Amino acid sequence: MYKCWLIKEYTCRASLYDFFIQNHIIRTMGKDIFISICKIPLLLLFLYMFICSLDILSSAFQLAGGKVAGDIFKDNAVFSNPVAGLVVGILVTVLVQSSSTSTSIVVSLVSSGLLDVGSAIPIIMGSNIGTSVTNTIVALMQAGEREEFKRAFAGATVHDCFNWLSVLVLLPLEAITGMMRLASEAVVESFNIVTGEDGPELLKVITEPLTNRIIQLDKTVIVGIATGQEVLRNKSLIKVWCQTRITIQENVSYVSSENSTVPTTSLHMNAEKCAHLFVETGLSDLAVGLILLSSSLLVLCTCLLLLVKLLNSLLQGQVAKAIQKILNTDFPFPFGWLTGYLAILVGAGMTFVVQSSSVFTSAITPLIGIGVISIERAYPLTLGSNIGTTTTAILAALASPGDKLAAAFQVALCHFIFNILGILLWYPVPLSRLPIRMARFLGERTAKYRWFAVLYLILCFLLLPSIVFALSMAGWQVLVGICVPCLAVLLCIVVVNRLQSQKPHLLPWWLQTWNHLPLWMHSLKPMDNIITRITLCCRKARNSDQSRTSPEDLPQLTEYEAEKNHVPLAQNSPALSYDYDYETETGAVFDSLNGKSSRL
């Protein structure tokens, strides 16, 4: 009897314990779900601010360099050289941070007869390259974590690699044969194209209520300077008068000589001032551009860091694995090859919705960094964004006036054909997907030498285009005589490096390794040592300035804060440390500046 009572008591207590455990688990799960649901509006808010900051960043670049871009387009004699036109397209798009602005200038030049379509095509190619600088800048914001930075930079530069490779192949073909010009001309002549309505601006409906309160620009000033309207040179890009209302009033007036009444009509024009922050500040365009540039970069970096933190907290455990599996898994055999083409369509559709390839590629860059989207899946999405931005340009061209319609549509169609040909070159065959391998190499370089990312931006989007532009202005003989040998040497180095890693026995002994050359010719280590020393000197100078501060000037800590400072940091735990085989001195310096333990 006593044993039965004990068994019942034990069973009752066990059931009660299980009940409390299950209740605690349900409460914990409910709390986690509630917190995750609350994070979603924050995620959307940070994404909205991120997109608005990109728009303000573009406006800041246009204020700072818009008139310079117009002056560059003004010299139409330069564009007879296709290489010069390509470089102008790159530099102008980097200056104004908007391929649509540079494309609209080209359309205005073509429609006004100042530029022919054949000369406009290289500029369109250059704008395709220049617009990819935005997501590369966004990737720099993830430099704090080495692996995330490696993936994010590779995912961003795959766009650059695709554009550069497409230009290297298609620009000479276009200069020799004029195939894109002839194809677009045939399409324009075969269709009876009429002026349509404006293209949809789905994203601007959401972002303009905020961005229009900060700044509004009169982009016709840049186009006017490019087309030679000198009266606009001293006009500010900042819009002052936003809405102009014309009212028609019908009156009846009495004519005494005829002893009769005559109906009259009067027009009244009422202009309303804009309501943005810089409408009447008295500041120059450059000053406003610099203010907006610094503030938009600050908001951009802050929103991006918070987006990455929220995405990391939301996409954890089984959720992250499920999303990665959905996004990166191919269709079952034998339809696996269709997955990439579906991703191209998705990228084109999303870019069509947001009306900007820069916004779309910049938005997926953090997802690539945290590992949710692989670079193999990001590549077709990027290709689709290239197509999506051209369809938007085609719709905008169809809304042009009748006298500009044919030229605007032909230029937009050339942009579309260029991206389609690029996809046919660098995507259908897996072995031809060189942009992925090139981007992986760049990602590994930036993970080993983080300063390499800044060097890449300066070299590819400023120094290299400027040097090529200077050589092209000296004559095509000089350009060919210098660039062709340089490209041949670069191609030979790439081939030898490939053979060294895979089949070194096919090479002579003196080409099986580069160790017999000086270190600076085959390694970035000497430059890394110089940058390390400069970084250390700056850090020592900062520490010496801090050491001069007297103890009385320092804030006094409370007893709780003093005790809290003695608690060991979790990041110093050996269990959480990660050893990179390729870590360099500069990487250790960056880690020490970020608060991590230094290995110097």
Which helices and strands, and how do they pair?
Layout: H1 2-74, H2 82-96, H3 99-111, H4 117-130, H5 133-140, H6 146-177, H7 179-190, H8 202-214, H9 220-226, E1 241-255, E2 260-273, H10 285-314, H11 317-328, H12 338-354, H13 357-369, H14 375-398, H15 402-426, H16 434-448, H17 452-473, H18 476-502, H19 519-522, H20 525-547, H21 559-565, H22 585-593
Helix pairs in contact: 1-2, 1-8, 1-9, 1-10, 2-4, 2-17, 3-4, 3-15, 4-6, 4-15, 5-6, 5-13, 5-17, 6-13, 6-14, 6-15, 6-16, 7-15, 12-14, 13-14, 14-15, 17-18
Offer a concise description of the structure.
The chain has helices at residues 2-74, 82-96, 99-111, 117-130, 133-140, 146-177, 179-190, 202-214, 220-226, 285-314, 317-328, 338-354, 357-369, 375-398, 402-426, 434-448, 452-473, 476-502, 519-522, 525-547, 559-565, 585-593, and strands spanning 241-255, 260-273. The chain is mainly alpha-helical. It starts with a helix and ends in a 7-residue tail after the last helix.
What does this structure look like?
With 600 residues, this protein is mostly helical. The chain has helices at 2-74, 82-96, 99-111, 117-130, 133-140, 146-177, 179-190, 202-214, 220-226, 285-314, 317-328, 338-354, 357-369, 375-398, 402-426, 434-448, 452-473, 476-502, 519-522, 525-547, 559-565, 585-593; strands at residues 241-255, 260-273. The chain has a two-stranded antiparallel ribbon with strand order 1-2. The radius of gyration is 30 Å and the shape is globular. Mean pLDDT is 75; it is low at 557-600.
